Amino acid sequence: MASQTPEPIVSIVGLDKIYQGGFHALKSVDLEIFRGEIFALLGPNGAGKTTLIGIVCGLVRATGGTVIADGHDIARDYRAARAKIGLVPQELSTDMFETVWHTVNFSRGLFGKPRDHALVEQILRDLSLWDKRHSKIAGLSGGMKRRVLIAKALSHEPTILFLDEPTAGVDVELRRDMWDMVRRLRERGVTIILTTHYIEEAEEMADRIGVIDGGKIILIDEKHALMERLGRTRVTVGLAAPLDTLPPELADEGLALTEDGASLVLTLTGEGDGAAGAADLIKRLFAAGIDFRSVDTARSSLEEIFVGLVEKQA
After folding, report:
1. Is 0.85 surpassed by the pTM of this model?
2. Segment holding 91, helix H or strand E
């Protein structure tokens, strides 16, 4: 059976943004985000991530191009498009002297939604905020304040949720709690788009990854395909005795002797199998009569791939 073509929920075509003063923040960006996926947008500071989110969420006016959000043009049908979108901004900006309960209910009302105390209660419980519902936001920790921002963004039941650096400044335990919450939201059909400086966040959560740099999308791919296509596996064999040169019978593309002669390093690109590569190298060492004392296999991380991509564009 043929696989079903994913349905785009956000379609961005030819998006440009030139700020007053001439700074070209976005340069003809084309991007499709599929319904129900978790999409991570990565890029260095100033790459255009926040501008892109701002335009889709109706906070920044585009210079050119079109954006369709769940069937609605964000320029021609602003109110309907905006009602489909929830935004958790990077900045902790909310009324610090209101209670959690009031501020989340008020956010729901801003979108013309009728009161639904059961829904708000469920959101607060999901975010471990129920016990804090009567607390003023000013008295909450930074992590709890960020949870309040997420609750506000979810209060009007959006189908698309933007998380701009959602776990910046929170501890590791809270970060993992938020990852679990994001997965639950996706299971309910919410499409998640996140920007993050934490590469492990994208590696842990995302279905697909887009890389933006200098206002241009330089790569979009499924996470696993990206790791396979651009990743590297490095097999390092520590030798029992240093070698002066690489023996002819071991001369092979991807195999090198370290400068001190104490180790052999085999680099496998793309879909190279580290375990199989290590096993093959060990057989060849036995055949050549070379003793070794250790074997270590390491797969490149998404962070290394990302840094390499950005450096190529520089």
Report:
1. no
2. none
110 or 200, higher pLDDT: 110
Tell whether 284 is covered by a domain.
Answer: yes
**Residue 2 confidence (pLDDT) above 50:** no
Q: Look up residue 198 and give its amino acid.
A: Y
The first and second tokens of residue 180, run together, are: 């679990």
In the block, residue with structure tokens 């000013």: 138
Residue 4 belongs to domain spanning: 1-84+158-166+186-230
Q: How large is the angle between the packed helices 142-154 and 100-110, nearest 10 degrees? A: 30
> Are residues 195 and 299 both part of a single domain?
no
CATH code for the domain in which residue 275 is found: 3.30.70
Instruction: For residue 252, give both structure tokens.
Output: 């092979």
> Worst-scoring range by mean pLDDT, 48-62, 64-78, 107-121, 259-273?
259-273
Structure tokens at 168: 């910046």
Does residue 190 fall inside a structural domain? Answer: yes
Per-residue pLDDT tens digits for 120-151? 999 999 888 999 999 999 899 888 888 899 89
Token pair, residue 95, equals 């009324």
* Cβ 154 vs Cβ 122: under 8 Å: no
